[in-house]
Structure formats: structure tokens, C-alpha cells
Amino acid sequence: MTHKRVRTAIFPVAGLGTRFLPATKGTPKELLPVIDTPLIQYAIDEAREVGVERMIFVSHPSKAAIEHYVMDDARLRATLVDHGKSDLAHELEEAALDTRDCEVIFVTQPEPRGLGDAVACARPHLLDGPVAVILPDDLILGTPGCLREMVDAYDRGKAGHLVAVMEVPKALTGRYGILSVTAEDGRFVQASGIVEKPEPDKALSQMAVVGRYILDPVVFDALAQQAPGAGGEVQLTDAITISSVKAGVAGFRFSGRRFDCGSKQGMLAATLFLARDDPAYAEVFEEYLAPEDIAPVG
């Protein structure tokens, strides 16, 4: 297997989270918790699991709370210790990013011009080699993590761009980037490109791209020349398709369970999924809803 190590992870976190207003008026959607863990923490932990050397957060000036969350707060930890809450102080220290282990860079996306534009904002800060992109509101639960599985499977000889995919009902293809599938080989789905949000009757497959990517650096050349696409935004999927002529593109069927936590329904489903097997919430389920009545929703 020929590959280079994934040394950089990009987290596009500049979105305004309008589907969660008014909650996101004061709290970035990436900090909304699934029970007690913010979405951004799950994304960070995936990147940590593969040992990336640099994390780049593409944010917005109105979302300073994200930087405050991800970095260590020694003063808060000291206050907790003084109040006899050393265990909680230790948990916060473990969750925070330690710049001795990984470089942390924040860059600004001034205008909401799409995912492709957000990823392009990180270009000046990339380390050599393939780049991971993680969308925090696509929560993928599983062990090992989705990015770990993708890094282990990544083979530049097969495809320079590797995207996480899942099969969706035909009626829902208009919500996703959809692979133009050419062949399938186990967990790999070879493709000639990606079509962003096609009408169901025009979708070339039901293989939908979800928020994990390992990208060959040639994608940034395509992004630099990318015109707005679907929705008037700069689409990352368009740049992947254009640059796949040089790099190739494939989908990867991950083993975890995915939740669209950019929606209220997805957040609720993820919360119920994690809570239903935790004894701490047994009384809540007993009072309001029997666990067997909850259908897993991905």
C-alpha cells in the first residue's frame, strides 16, 4: 500500500447554524452537546486518534467561543480544584487541545461562501501530504473512529481522494453529494466523480458522501479556480470531481453509525442512541419512553 501520513485536519466551523436558532444566536452549533459532549469534541477526538500534527479550524469572527472551548483554560481548572472538583478539572484538561502535542490554528472565513471556500481558507497552513476534512455536525459513532478506518485504508494508488459514503434511499439523494459509481470492491466504491444534490430521478447512484474526507492536495488548485455551484456556494464536491482527473476518487463504507446533527432530528436521535444503554438515564426512559420503542435513526 502506497500512502503518505495524514498530518493535517481541517474543521470547517464557520456556519451560522440557522436550523438551531435561537439557540445558536449565542452558542455555535459545534458546541451544542450530545448529552454532555459538544459535537466539536467528537470531531477533535477522531483527529487525535490518527495522530494529526496540525488542526486548522476555519471559523467566523462571531464564533470566538469555539476557540475558548478547544483550548485549555488553566484558570477555570484551578478554580474547580479550589472547589474540590479535581476530577472535573482533569476531564477538562484531557478534552482540551495541548499545543505540545498538536499545532492548533484558527483562520477566518469572512463570508459564508460554501464548504469548498471554507476548506480553501486553510491552504496557507497545510502540512505536506494528504489532508483530512472533518465536519463536526456529521457525528459518526464507532470504534475505531471513521477517520481512523479511512486513514488505515487510504491508498494513493487507488484514489487520492477518499470520501466517507453511505447508501441512502433514492428519495433522499437530493440532500447529498452522490458518487458516480464505476465499480465496487468491498468497502471501496470507485467513482468518476461526485454530483452535488442531484434530483432523485437523475442521481447516478445512492452512494452519498458524508462529512469525512481524505484529500490529495491537488484539490486546492481546483478550489482556487472554483466558481460557485449548487446553492450559489463553492462546492467541495465539485473541486474533488475536477481534481479527480489527476488524483482519482473513491468512496469508503465506514462501520460506524452516522447522525446528521446539523438537524434537530439528528441531534435528538444521537442523544437517544447514546442514552438508551446508559443506566444513568434508565429512569428517564422508563417514565417517558420504553427503550424498545426507540428505532435507531442514522
Please specify the SSE layout and strand pairing.
Layout: E1 8-12, E2 33-34, E3 37-38, H1 39-49, E4 54-59, H2 64-70, H3 74-82, H4 86-95, E5 103-108, H5 115-120, E6 131-134, E7 138-141, H6 146-153, E8 161-167, E9 177-185, E10 188-196, E11 207-215, H7 218-224, H8 236-247, E12 249-253, E13 257-260, H9 264-275, H10 282-288
Parallel strand pairs: 1-4, 1-6, 4-5, 8-12
Antiparallel strand pairs: 2-3, 6-11, 7-13, 8-11, 9-10, 9-11, 10-12
Helix pairs in contact: 3-4, 7-8
What does this structure look like?
The protein is of the alpha/beta class and 298 residues long. The chain has helices spanning 39-49, 64-70, 74-82, 86-95, 115-120, 146-153, 218-224, 236-247, 264-275, 282-288, and strands at 8-12, 33-34, 37-38, 54-59, 103-108, 131-134, 138-141, 161-167, 177-185, 188-196, 207-215, 249-253, 257-260. It contains ten helices and 13 strands. It has a single domain (8-281), classed as Spore Coat Polysaccharide Biosynthesis Protein SpsA, Chain A (Alpha-Beta Complex). It has a five-stranded mixed barrel. A two-stranded antiparallel sheet has the order 2-3. Helix 3 packs antiparallel against helix 4 (86-95) and helix 7 crosses helix 8 (236-247).
